[in-house]
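Researcher: We plan to redesign the surface later, but first we want a full-length starting point. Tokens attached.
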């Protein structure tokens, strides 16, 4: 099984790459870092990122990695968005002054968290409503963000609360999985979550 980590978006991509490398022996997959498209298909593509929505989208468009993601998704790949990568799944973000469009893989938009204490940074609990993640319900994951997704309720399989505001922590739609937290920084529970994502992708037709 081929797994790729997109590396053209700002952020500490190597943390996620190293976390996935530790799972290789258990789950038997090939892992590559991709800065530009190559003529190859993947079973899972991770889209991580930290920073500004507009700059990240510009990087994807300029490198043509947006087309690469679309192509692989339509060929059956599971796409996993992490933190900013999850926000890029949606149609637009308030963080973009020019209202640059996101990937549009999911309907919805990204808005600023209502708290005056930003960013939301540190450990917080995630409440899961999907059976395959129930063993992680109420566990602590690591967050660093100031924006949140606004989307259809049916997409939300995990939530988090910060300063009285409940926001999507995990969204899913067929072969799209987005997480607002950083599983690669979430120690044992983050490792369990990453393993579960790969196992879920393997179960996809």
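Model: Full-length starting sequence:
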């Amino acid at each position: 099984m081929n797994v790729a980590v997109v590396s053209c978006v700002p952020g500490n991509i190597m943390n996620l790459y190293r976390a996935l490398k530790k799972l290789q022996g258990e789950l038997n997959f090939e892992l590559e870092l991709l800065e530009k498209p190559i003529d190859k298909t993947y079973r899972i593509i991770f889209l991580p990122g930290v920073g500004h929505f507009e700059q990240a989208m510009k990087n994807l468009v300029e490198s043509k990695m947006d087309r690469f993601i679309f192509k692989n998704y339509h060929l059956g790949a599971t796409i996993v968005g992490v933190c900013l990568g999850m926000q890029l799944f949606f149609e637009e973000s308030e963080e973009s002054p020019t209202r640059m469009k996101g990937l549009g893989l999911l309907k919805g938009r990204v808005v600023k968290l209502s708290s005056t204490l930003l960013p939301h940074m540190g450990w917080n609990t995630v409440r899961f409503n999907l059976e395959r993640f129930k063993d992680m319900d109420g566990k602590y994951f690591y967050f660093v963000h100031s924006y949140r997704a606004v989307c259809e309720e049916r997409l939300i399989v995990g939530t988090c609360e910060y300063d009285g505001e409940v926001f999507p922590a995990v969204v899913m739609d067929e072969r799209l999985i987005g997480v607002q937290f950083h599983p690669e920084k979430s120690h044992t529970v983050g490792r369990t979550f990453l393993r579960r994502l790969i196992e879920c992708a393997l179960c996809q037709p």
